[in-house]
């Protein structure tokens, strides 16, 4: 029999805070958690609001001295990974699992490249006097390396860079390795902290960021006719994935299961999604096949929908193609959280498991009028009932990277 | 079994009256002669190297069942059994996972960090008194009251109950030793009976009138988890572990504050260096915690036949991990018997390792940092007045008394 993969812990450091309940309350509340950023304002960035993680005390997670060697994404990632262990009833220390049977997979779109930004934008960079830690601070894999070392995850330490699909890919690939019996457990998720003047300016130049400055709390509005782009956020989220029998034997609380995964590529354009959504549709079908269920069994869909015009439209078409007009309720947490890039997928997968468990899906934030002609069941205004434990959760990245996960909240 | 022609008691006798005064000498001899040693008369394996200890603490073949040997001679249903039977440190998964998760949820970083102002306030008040007397017994005047007041504050225990509780815990200390006298047994029995009653009442009271304290939050978390998956705590688990947290939260920290002060006073150059660079405080606290581990050993039991290095351990055998020995293993720490506030060589074993790693490590470090930071800030001179006295015994390492002087300027 195929091994099943349980979700036994979650760690969140998102604009909604760090407690799982805070995330669910924020999603139910339905306001975009965007705030004015003094750094962006001071730098005169074209967009000056973003989703930021509330301040927290890092010294509970690492020694003060080590702290100085960490960049923001490293901190958020380490803290979220630690919280996932804690949530699973395990010590935030090595030894929770046999190191040779424990891995870590991190998704990140931007890694630590703001460090390069910081170095490069100094008035006079002296090429003979860079800090010796410059490389370790810039490496995209630094968060994975730190988590692996900190918690004794020696079986693998992998970093997936696939824009907005990064975190989903990390979860799916880690799930496969547990299923194949290579490891009993893995920390899987992702992190990004891309809110810097240069990155914001670069995204703004692509015309993909929301500019509705009047009220940032309504800026992100997936599937709405008035949407004008996404809200850039920082955040980290990790799941502790664990082989089902192992989880049961140690008495772990099981949130649910990662039951299916598929990834493919639009093979279409450097940024724009394939407009008809056909590859994204095949991606969802692949994940459903992997989980061994039919589209009709899916209780709700957690859309990637970031609030960009073309992205939401293509995904809407993909969902329509797979599930038809009478499909399950579709929600989109990025209306509240903004886009945490690599940090999004694990938080959204967790939310989906909670929606399934409570049999109720939160509405998409700020939707007054769903874009006409999409033919899908977007949850608007009031929560909707989710029938059954199954959910599909999408992560679709710039560059045509598609990831679909199939989740089940059934114990 | 003999090693190097020594009988087992010649090689290692932790019950020697002088043991506490030269523990690290005893460990060194054992480690150098037989690092993984079966002590025939104690009927346990003794493990004294850092790496082997880590393997024993984290290894999948080891677990807890049959722990707290000293509580065993008390029959089922007796007060000590009713007080300690469900202690986190004594149980294995799946029970351990469920109970630990409830405690970890309640004991979040945020809660620990919220205690900082209270700790600062208490440190201030205790040091005011210490300054007014120009010093005195650091254990009785500072190291004991600070963690005690902090844990009482955390658990929401009213001040009126403090004296009785302090007496109760002192009398239960022999529970931690592998051997106790008849007089100690009777005393433990009586104190445990009163502790059961006290903590049962405390929990009942918090159920009736929940407040913003740890016990009320713990009850709420437990109730919250009482779903179809049955994550909640039983009444015994709740009571036992609140009592355990109470004891674990102050005796250990008192030990570290006392031995840490003694270490600093005994190494004036290190003290000077720390004064010159307060940025070292964090590292100094870690070194203090390495220097003397309050719990000197943790016993693990092999569930299955297993190999430790090249040594075969059979299922059912007990392996005693000597934390203090591992903390002074020269293969792990450079020049381990010297106290260095600048040491940066990774974690010591004092908080344990593996599934039972101490939940209160952050709080203990916070208390130490606030206290030593303030001591250095206030007193330009700190002087040792006489050699400190170690509490006799093997399990628990602490000072009974530490007479010192403080000079304001
Ligand atoms: C310097 C002070 C402290 C030291 C050296 C210390 C040491 C330890 C050690 C060695 C263990 C592991 C025992 C084992 O493997 O069975 C442990 C467990 C534990 N400690 Fe601490 N501790 C300290 C302070 C605290 C504080 C302040 C609290 C709480 C307020 C606390 C609560 C606990 C709890 C609940 C456990 C049980 C964890 C489990 O079994 O999963 N400790 N401690």
From TrEMBL, chain B:
Source organism of this protein record: Streptomyces phaeofaciens
Gene3D superfamilies the UniProt entry points to: Cytochrome P450
Cross-referenced InterPro entries: Cyt_P450, Cyt_P450_B, Cyt_P450_CS, Cyt_P450_sf
Residue stretches spanning the membrane: none
Record-level Gene Ontology MF annotations: heme binding; iron ion binding; monooxygenase activity; oxidoreductase activity, acting on paired donors, with incorporation or reduction of molecular oxygen
The keyword Iron appears for this protein: yes
Keywords recorded for this protein, A-Z: Heme, Iron, Metal-binding, Monooxygenase, Oxidoreductase
Pfam families: p450
Protein name: Cytochrome P450
Family: Belongs to the cytochrome P450 family.
Coiled coil: none
């Amino acid at each position: 029999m195929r091994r099943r993969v349980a979700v036994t812990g979650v760690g969140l450091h998102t604009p909604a805070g760090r407690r799982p309940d805070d995330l669910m309350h924020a999603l139910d509340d339905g306001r975009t958690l965007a705030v004015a950023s003094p750094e962006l304002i001071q730098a005169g960035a074209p967009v000056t609001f973003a989703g930021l993680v509330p301040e927290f005390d890092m010294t509970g997670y690492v020694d003060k001295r080590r702290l100085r060697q960490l960049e923001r994404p490293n901190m958020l990632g380490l803290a979220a990974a630690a919280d996932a262990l804690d949530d699973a009833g395990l010590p935030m220390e090595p030894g929770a699992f046999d190191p040779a049977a424990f891995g870590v997979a991190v998704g990140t779109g931007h890694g630590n490249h703001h460090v390069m930004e910081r170095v490069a934008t100094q008035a006079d960079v002296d090429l003979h006097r860079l800090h010796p830690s410059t490389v370790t601070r810039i490496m995209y894999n630094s968060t994975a390396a730190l988590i692996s070392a900190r918690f004794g995850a020696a079986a693998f330490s992998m970093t997936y860079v696939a824009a907005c699909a990064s975190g989903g890919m990390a979860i799916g690939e880690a799930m496969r390795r547990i299923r194949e019996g290579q490891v009993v457990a893995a920390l899987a998720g992702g992190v990004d902290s891309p809110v810097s003047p240069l990155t914001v300016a670069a995204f703004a130049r692509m015309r993909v960021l929301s500019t509705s400055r009047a009220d940032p709390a309504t800026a992100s509005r997936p599937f709405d006719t008035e949407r004008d782009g996404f809200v850039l956020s920082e955040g980290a989220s990790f799941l502790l994935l664990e082989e089902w029998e192992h989880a049961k034997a140690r008495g772990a609380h099981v949130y649910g299961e990662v039951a299916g995964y598929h990834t493919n590529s639009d093979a279409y354009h450097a940024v724009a999604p394939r407009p008809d959504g056909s590859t994204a549709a095949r991606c969802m079908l692949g994940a459903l096949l992997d989980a061994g269920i039919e589209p009709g069994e899916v209780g709700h869909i957690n859309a990637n929908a970031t609030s960009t015009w073309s992205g939401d439209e293509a995904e809407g078409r993909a969902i329509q193609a797979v599930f038809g007009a009478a499909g399950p309720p579709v929600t989109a947490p990025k209306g509240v959280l903004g886009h945490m890039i690599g940090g999004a997928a694990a938080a959204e997968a967790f939310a989906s498991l909670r929606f399934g468990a409570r049999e109720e899906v939160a509405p998409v934030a700020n939707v007054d009028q769903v874009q006409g002609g999409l033919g899908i069941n977007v949850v608007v205004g009031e929560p909707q009932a989710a029938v059954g434990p199954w959910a599909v959760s999408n992560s679709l990245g710039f560059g045509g990277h598609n990831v679909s996960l199939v989740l089940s909240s059934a114990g | 079994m003999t090693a190097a022609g020594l009988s087992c008691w010649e090689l290692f006798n932790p019950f020697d009256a002088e043991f506490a005064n030269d523990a690290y000498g005893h460990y060194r001899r054992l480690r150098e002669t037989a690092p993984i040693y079966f002590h025939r008369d104690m009927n346990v394996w003794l493990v004294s190297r850092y790496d082997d200890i880590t393997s024993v603490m984290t290894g999948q073949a080891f677990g807890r069942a049959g722990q707290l040997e000293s509580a065993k001679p008390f029959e089922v249903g007796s007060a000590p059994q009713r007080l300690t039977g469900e202690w986190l440190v004594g149980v294995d998964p799946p029970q351990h996972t469920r109970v630990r998760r409830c405690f970890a949820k309640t004991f979040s970083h945020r809660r620990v960090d919220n205690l900082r102002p209270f700790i600062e306030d208490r440190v201030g008040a205790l040091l005011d008194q210490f300054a007014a007397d120009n010093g005195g017994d650091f254990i009785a005047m500072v190291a004991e009251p600070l963690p005690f007041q902090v844990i009482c504050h955390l658990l929401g225990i009213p001040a009126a109950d403090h004296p009785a509780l302090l007496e109760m815990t002192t009398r239960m200390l022999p529970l931690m030793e592998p051997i106790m006298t008849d007089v100690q047994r009777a005393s433990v029995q009586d104190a445990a009976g009163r502790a059961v009653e006290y903590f049962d009442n405390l929990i009942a009271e918090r159920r009736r009138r929940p407040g913003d304290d740890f016990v009320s939050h713990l009850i709420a978390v437990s109730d919250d988890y009482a779903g179809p998956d049955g994550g909640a705590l039983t009444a015994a688990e709740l009571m036992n572990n609140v009592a355990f947290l109470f004891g674990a939260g102050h005796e250990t920290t008192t030990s570290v504050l006392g031995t840490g002060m003694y270490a600093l006073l005994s190494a004036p150059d290190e003290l000077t260096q720390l004064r010159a660079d307060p940025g070292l405080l964090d590292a100094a606290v870690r070194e203090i915690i390495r220097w003397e581990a309050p719990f000197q050993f943790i016993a693990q039991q092999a569930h299955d036949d297993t190999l430790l290095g090249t040594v075969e351990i059979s299922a059912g055998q007990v392996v005693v991990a000597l934390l203090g020995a591992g903390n002074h293993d020269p293969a792990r720490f450079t020049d381990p018997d010297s106290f260095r506030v600048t040491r940066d060589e990774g974690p010591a074993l004092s908080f344990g390792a593996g599934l039972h790693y101490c939940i209160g490590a952050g709080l203990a470090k916070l208390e130490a940092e606030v206290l030593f930071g303030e001591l250095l800030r206030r007193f330009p001179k700190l002087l040792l007045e006489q050699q400190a006295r170690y509490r006799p015994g093997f399990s628990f390492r602490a000072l009974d008394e530490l007479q010192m002087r403080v000079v304001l300027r």
